[in-house]
Amino acid sequence: MDWVDRSEFAEFLIARRAQLQPEEVGLPSGRRRRTPGLRREEVAALAGVSVDYLARLEQGRDSNPSTAVLAALADALRLNEVERHHFSKLALGLDPQVGGCPADGRAFERVSDTVQAVLDALHPTPAFVLGRRLNVLAWNAAWRDFAEPLEVLDTEGEVNLGHYLFGNPVATKWWTDWPIAADLMTSSLRAARSQWAEDPQLAATIQALQRFPEFTRRWREHRMTDYRSATVHLNHPIRGEVEVEIETLSPAVDQSVVVWLVDRRQVHTPGLRLVNE
After folding, report:
1. Above 60 in pLDDT, residue 2?
2. Could you tell me the pTM of the whole model?
3. The organism sits in which domain of life (predicted)?
4. In sequence order, what are the residues at sequence separation of 6 or more whose Cβ sits closer than 8 angstroms to the Cβ of residue 32?
């Protein structure tokens, strides 16, 4: 438990407690509250722990919560499955699916020839390699053709999906489900930070995104969604309204192959053509 990120864990508890309303957990709303969300004693009662113990957790003065306590707190805070996994990583300081110490240091951002070959073999399905900082490290021709009209590649430096979605005004124009995409990017960075807390480039990316209010709000809320698999809709400037199913594979520790399945459920309909033909 020595690896626990006390500030992150404490921030998560406080932020999620503030977002819960009494009626969401079966409590009367009562008089108007001076601060939003549930009182500390209410969450403690729901989780079956003492108020003093919850205070110590929120203040970073206790770094050894048991798995039973974590489960009870997760139930009390009404966390979804992705948030439970993240909550466990914050508390235990390791990934429950992998084990071991959280990794530090800078990311390995060179894409191997084998991974590039996988991208090329996926053509005509758009696919790209995403780094831990949301930086796009490589892509295939199909993804380039799909992303260029969206102005994803219109940058002099590295291509970063976080900076594109939060900093480029056209993103809200083309991405019909922009809030969903924004949640995906924030959740991905939140998960990366819990695993690579000592990465200075990751910290710099998160800091730079703080100048965008929509990112800052999401970051402070500590909400998590399944950023590895999702469906979003776009009003593509060339292809019109399209549905994109996102699926993520991880060939390396800090690199992911992200596949965009475009209008997959329509390609078998008579009269329709594959978008990449």
Report:
1. no
2. 0.75
3. Bacteria
4. none
